[in-house]
Amino acid sequence: DSGETWVMSDLLARHRAVMPSWLALYYDNPIEIVTGKGNRVTDADGVTYLDFFAGIVTNMLGYDVAEVREAVERQLARGVAHTSTLYLLRGQVELAEKIARLSGIPDAKVFFTNSGTEANETALLLATCARGSDQVLAMRNSYHGRSYGTIAVTGNRGWKNSSLSPLNVHYLHGTDRDHPAFRGMGDEEYVEVCVADLRDVLATATAPDVACLIAEPVQGVGGFAMAPEGLFAAYKEVLDEHGILFVSDEVQTGWGRTGSHFWGIGAHGVVPDAMTFAKGLGNGFAIGGVVARGDLMDGLPANGVATFGGNPVSTAAANATLDYLLDHDLQANAARLGPVLLDGLRPLAASLATVGAVRGRGLMFAVDMVEPDSGEPSPRLAAAVLEETRRRGLLIGKGGLHGHTLRMAPPMTLSEEEAREGRDILVEAITAVDAAAR
Ligand code: PMP
User: What keywords were assigned to this record (predicted)?
Assistant: First the structure.
């Protein structure tokens, strides 16, 4: 063994000794990434990878972006990494103005947090306080975070490590339709069934004052499961009849990643009462938040401060990231490259017995791996594809209820050449795993 391998396994042993056992690591031999440039990262062994997972849908401009680095350095050069949200913060106000304008929500106001979990906690707080109710609707197969409140609205069992939530949650079918009862149904019929289910839940299972529905337009951790066309517009009609608020979790789908719209929910023609965001906004710096109707935001009856929420460094990074994204129209890039990737992968579903569905919107696309004999979800084969893509110099993600879905969400700065390179590696890796599985 080389000294480097020894150093790596030593770090892994130290990780296992002091980090929780449920903090899962990717790959049989986990990677330590040490540098990044453009849309590639390099590990401690000097191996460079094209990054199609971008820190879990986070580095939307890739790595070492001069505009973001310089904005952060300018802020640090002032000697103020942090003061307090008890004082006026110019970067925070400017960022809030941009997000309020981009949200499409009338009279929108913004509250900044440090993560998506906290953003969703805040949205749940706004909705439950506004409605004076602890009852919340959420989607099956969803993921919204790792706190008590957000685990409660997480409908994906793989991430539910507690049931001790203060919220009273009812889960709807809808986004993830991979259920025997819905197989073979067209979108229109399926949406009708889901709306009837929502009406039934409201009529029979809840007290009359449900606070909100929280939903991801495309389920991220759930394996990029896409709500069928029209679902949220149809839900919204019913919610409005009851005064129930709608929170769209845009933590993975925001900022134009889905290509056709700036927010994932835009594809449904719905303007929510609140949207939550995080991940990509700071291009690696921790920032999240809620943008909501002003009356909702102002409705909380007591003070609330997030010490680090919207601090000078993360808002400097976020303002630079958002400006870059808009100036370079990266939403259009996502729309342009999505088909390059999908069209290359779709044929695999027909030709390989280990490939189930292939789906995507913009730069969020997924491949379900299935057992060749039974067609059942195959986490084993998905893990094998991850090893094969890694060996070929490509990082991708996993997801889905059973961990059987390959999840790809490259930086939105991806070039067409890189899109083809990553796509070709994926096709090769999946084909190799398929051949070995027979
Ligand atoms: N909502 C969604 C849709 C997410 O994908 C995630 C993170 N995977 C979260 C919320 C939680 O964000 P964070 O990890 O920043 O707390």
Answer: Aminotransferase, Pyridoxal phosphate, Transferase
